[in-house]
Design a protein that fits this description.
The complex is a heterodimer. By secondary structure, chain A is mostly helical. Chain A has 10 helices and no strands. In chain A, helix 5 crosses helix 6. Chain A starts with 20 loop residues before the first helix and ends with a helix. In chain B, strand 6, helix 6 and strand 7 form a beta-alpha-beta unit. Chain B is built from 10 helices and 13 strands. The chains are: A mainly alpha, B alpha/beta.
Chain lengths: 261, 314
Amino acid sequence: MTLSAPVPAGTPAARGAAAPLPTRVLRHGAYEALAMLRNGEQLVLAIVLPLLALAALVITPLLDAYGADRIDVAAPGVLALCTMSTAFTGQGIATGFDRRYGVLRFLSTTPLGRSGLILGKAVAVAVVLAVQLVVIGCAAALMGWTPEPAGILPAALLLLLGSAAFTALGLLVAGTLRPEATLAVTNLVWILLAAAGGVIIPAASLPDAAEPFISVLPSAALGDGLRSALADGVFDPIACLVLLAWAALASLAAIRWFKWS
Amino acid sequence: MPTSSPALEIDGLVKDFGPVGALDGRMVRVLDGVSLRAEHGAVTVLLGANGAGKTTTLECAQGLQRADGGRVSLLGADPSRATPHLRARVGVMLQDGGLPPSVRPLALLRHVASMYADPLPVDALAERLGLDEFGAVSIRRLSGGQKQRLALACALVGRPEVVFLDEPSAGLDPQSRTIVFELIRELRADGLAVILTTHLLDDAQRLADYVYILEGGRTVAEGTVAELTADADGARELRFETVPGLSFPPDLLPHLLQRETEPGQYVLRGPLTADDVARLAGWWVACGVMPTGISMAPRSLEDVFLDISGRSIR
C-alpha cells in the first residue's frame, strides 16, 4: 500500500480532506454515546440508580403529599435525575479523564476540532438521554404512569434546555479541575441536588427560608418544570428561563475558563 | 522542492507560560525567538535537550497553543485559527499520544478515520504498523512502543500533507524503530513534510534532511547533518587518553581547541594536519607519556551540540 494518495507528477497534492461537519459531529456523538453505554459505572449512574429511585418513590409514601398518584410525581423527577446524571456527572467525568490523557488535544487536531468535539458530546448526551427516556418511560408506564399529553412538548423543551445547562456545567467543572476532583465534585453535587435541589421533592415543599434559593437552581427548574408539564399539563415559562440562563452562563464560563490540557 | 512555498514557516516565535506560583507569579518565557522552515518532501528535525522548547514549538505550529509573538504559517494559514479543511491536511502525533485508555486500538483508528473524507484503508495501515497484533485489547494494556505505533497510525490515517511527530522513537524497540523509520522515509518520498522532534542524536543523524538545534527556547543552529558536522576548515577531532592533569603549552597548537573533558581524556578540535599530530607526538615524548588510546574523526552531531550549548544533550 502507499501511505498517501497517489499524486500525479506535476500536480499539487490533493490529499487530506475533511468529512462534512454533520458527519463528524454525528460520528463523534455516536462514538461517545457508545463509550458511555459500555462503561459499567456510567450505566449504573444512568439506568440502574434512576430505576431504583423510581421503584423506591413508588413503594414508599415519600411523595404522598404532592399528588394523588405517586408515579405521576415520581416519574418526571426521575427524568430530571437522569438528565443530571448523564449530562453533568457522566459527561463531566468522561471529559475530565479525556483531558488528562490528552485525548481532547489529539482530537482537536483532527478535522473534528474543538467545536466539533463539544457538539459531539452534546449529541452523545442526547442519545444516552433518549435511551434513558425509553427505559424509565417504559418502567414508569408499567407502574401505571400516564403523562399529560399536553405536557409532552413543554417537557421535551425543558429536557433539551436542562441537558444544555447541565452539559455546560459538566464541561466547566471538567475543564477547570483535575479529573479526580471532577469525579468527586460532580458526584457530590449530583447527590446534593438529588436530595435537596428540587429534583425529586418539589422546591415548594422545602423549608421556606431555602425555597427562593433552591427554586433558581437548574435542578429545581427542571424537576418542577417537568412535574407541572407531565403531571398537570401546564407549561412553566419561568423554569424555561431559569434553565436558559444557566445554560448561557455556564457556556460562557466554560468558553472562558475551559483548559484543553 | 525549493520552488514551492514551505509547508511550515515560523519566524521569531515567542511563547510565555504562567504566571508561575513558584516564581512569585511571574511569567516564564519558554520560547524566545524560534525560527524555522519545513519543506515538502523533507524530514525536518527539531533537536534539543529536554526543556529546550521543542514540544511547545510544535504545539504552536499545530494550533494547540497560541503564540505570544512572532509568526507561524502552516500551509499558508494561521494554525491557531485552523479550519477543519486545514486540520485534514495535517497529521499530529502528540508526545503523550492522546489515546483514550479504555478504547480498543482499531476502534480508535476507525473513529479517527471517520473524520476524513478519504482516509487510508484502516486494515492495511493497521497491518503495516503491526497494530492488528494487538487490535482486540484496550489501549491501557499496550506497551509504550505499541501506543507509539497506534498514535502514528492516527496521525497518518487522513492522508496528510504535513505530519508532526513529537518524539516518534520514544519507547520503541529496535524492530519497531526500523518499521517507523522506514515509514518516515516513505512519507518523505511521497512528498510529505515530516516535522519531528527528538533528543536522540542518532535519530537526527539517520533521518534528518535538515536539523534545527533548539536551546533555551531559541533556534541556535541549523543545517543539514552534513553541513552541521562539516569540517568547514578541515575541522577534525583528535582524542587521546593518558595520565590526568597534563596542561598544553600555550604555543604548542594555538589554532586548535584543547580541553581535558574528563580526567585523562583529552580532546583537540580544529583544522588538524599531519604536522599538528607530529608536534603533539613530540610533546608526548618531551613529557614522557604514552597515550593508552588515540582516535581521530570528523565531528559528530553530538560535538556540534556540545560546542553550541556547552553541555551534553543527555
